[in-house]
Hints:
By secondary structure, the protein is of the alpha+beta class. Among the domains are: 3-128; 157-226, ATP-grasp fold, A domain (Dna Ligase, domain 1, 2-Layer Sandwich), CATH 3.30.1490; 372-460. 30% of the residues lie in helices and 26% in strands. It has helices at 3-18, 34-43, 78-90, 94-103, 133-136, 144-150, 165-175, 207-217, 275-296, 338-346, 355-368, 438-452; strands spanning 23-26, 49-52, 67-70, 110-113, 121-122, 125-126, 159-162, 181-185, 198-201, 220-225, 230-238, 243-245, 249-256, 262-268, 300-309, 312-319, 372-379, 387-393, 398-400, 409-416, 419-426, 459-460. Strands 11, 12, 13, 14, 15, 16, 17, 18, 19, 20, 21 and 22 form a 12-stranded antiparallel β-sheet that branches. A hairpin with a 2-residue loop joins strand 5 (121-122) and strand 6. The model has no long low-confidence stretch (mean pLDDT 95).
Amino acid sequence: MSDAALIQHYRSLILDLLRGRKVILGMSALAGMQGWIDLLQEAGAQKPLLLCETVGTGDVPSAEDADWIILADGAPDMMTGIRMFLDAMEHPTPALVEALDRYDPDRSALVLLNFLATGDQLGGRPRYAPRPPAWTALEDKVGVVDFWDRHGLPHAPSRVVPARGQALRDAHATLDQGLGTAWAGDNKDGFNGGATYLRWVRAPDDMPEAIAFMEAHADRVRVMPFVEGVPCSIHGVVFPDTVAVFRPNEMISLRRKGQNKLLYSGAATFWDPPEADREALRDFARRAGAALRAEVGFRGAFTLDGVMGADGFVPTELNTRFGGAMNLITVGLEGFEFFPLCLRIQNGDDLDYRPTDLERLLVAHADAHRAGGGWCVASPQRRTDTVKHGLVWTGEGYRLAGEDEETHGRLLVGPASAGTFVRFFPDAEHTPVGPSLAPRVVAAWACVERELGVPIGPLEAAREVRG
């Protein structure tokens, strides 16, 4: 089967699910929904109801094409906004239930929710492809160590300790190998991500804030030696009899100068690890996916995060769900819709998925078409408009492009639920393949601060230490 025919085959599996249906979509930013609307219209679905965390940055759909409700605009920070959005869907207010019933009085709509959502229903309507508690429990950044151990998957030494000052100090003293230690808090407060519950403790001055934060927000903390290297992830899809795995992504996790906090700031596929490391990482992911299936009957997409350090890959967390960076490996693959396909697999629908062909298609495409960039909530001051700027690479950094000047990247600056959202898109034709993209993201954020006056703060990229 040709690639074009294979893509059309996968698309038909998705269109069959949507055809003629009322659809309620709970998928985060309104500005990111046009692709879904195009897919629904192609399937002949009815006008959808969109539940969104925020309006977001970028173009929004037409009111003729969709109705929508914004659930978490104006949150004080990104993590709070995500939690408010997820909670609003899991515990809908009477006003939201009334709106849902106006759209879907017989409660027959197809309910498709954000990959972070954990509930199995929405206002009395069953959720398609729910995530069982046994799956979501494995995302706890503390408990995952036991999973590695149960299945013989190698990982860095670590200690799981109570979130108390002396226990944390003792673990740090035991595990520090010269670069300090990384502290990861548990899921006491609910979902956490984007390095918000991570602290890099190097010196006594780093400890007071880290201890105070963990005591306030965690019951247990995993402490491990800090590993220098490129933060990275790899993704896979678990099927009943096999595991498809794809190519590594770089996770743009930047260091704030003079602080113990990191800034998760994007993902990209421009970086290439050495070939032997790439294949070792893919093998690790395949083993992890098989272990998920054996232990909790898992199916669907998963992500494996870690660091490519001096001695190879060191895993740090496992996410039993689709990950935002998974979309990078399909950028430019016209007609292919990855997340809806993964929902069908996750739901256990017995269809012709052709996992070997899927892996071949996506690995080859992602290697040939590099993608990704940087993004962050850069300022607590919330914008109401969206602006676009071209960027020119000078050899040492980026500057804003002049009118009609050839550009090497672009910026998108606009509203977020918790402030000003900034997105950086490097031009693939002017971005080297192989090296880490993180230094260019640092350069883009420096340009944003210098030329647009949006405060981000001084940042540093991780160092490549392997090959």
